[in-house]
Design goal:
Radius of gyration: 13 Å
Helix content: 25-40%
Protein name: Methylmalonyl-CoA mutase, C-terminal domain
Number of helices: 5
Oligomer: single chain
CATH class: Alpha Beta
Shape: globular
InterPro entries: Acid_CoA_mut_C (IPR006159), Cobalamin-bd (IPR006158), Cobalamin-bd_sf (IPR036724)
Number of strands: 5
Strand order of the largest sheet: 2-1-3-4-5
Order of helices and strands: EHEHEHEHEH
Cofactor: adenosylcob(III)alamin
CATH architecture: 3-Layer(aba) Sandwich
GO molecular function: cobalamin binding; isomerase activity; metal ion binding
Strand content: 15-25%
CATH superfamily: Cobalamin-binding domain
Pfam family, one: B12-binding
Largest sheet: 5 strands, parallel
């Protein structure tokens, strides 16, 4: 069976990608295939890349403060494209604790804040992926 495919995306105008690169490397080292979008991606670009690359997970990293708009927008577009039920959506970055329940209500499965060990994210993906893995 193929490895878990993860799209690591940087939505919006956020110009900081150190955290995204750290998590991308950790996921790759854990045996996952990682596609990194680069900086300043629109929700539409993220969703189209997710579909084209046939990913199992969309992992968005955001530090700009626009998380309450951009992350739910990606979920909404995945639903419109009828692929949300096949793709695990997670987020990370500088996101206030009080915003996390809203993001989960909007369809983001989990939020990982600064200081979360990478193995916690890796385990969450393996335990919550929406397809059978070997």
């Amino acid at each position: 069976m193929r490895p878990i495919r993860v799209l690591v995306a940087k939505p919006g105008l956020d110009g900081h990608d150190r955290g995204a690169k750290v998590i991308a490397r950790a996921l790759r080292d854990a045996g996952m295939e990682v596609i990194y979008t680069g900086l300043r991606q629109t929700p539409e670009q993220i969703v189209q890349t997710a579909i084209q690359e046939d990913v199992d997970v969309v992992a968005m990293s955001i530090l700009s403060g626009a998380h309450n708009h951009l992350l739910p927008k990606v979920v909404q577009l995945l639903k419109e494209e009828e692929v949300y039920d096949e793709i695990l959506v997670i987020g990370g970055g500088v996101i206030p604790d009080e915003d996390i329940p809203y993001l989960k209500e909007k369809g983001v499965a989990e939020i990982f804040t600064p200081g979360t060990p990478t193995n916690v994210t890796i385990d969450f993906i393996k335990e919550n992926i929406k397809r059978e893995i070997a």
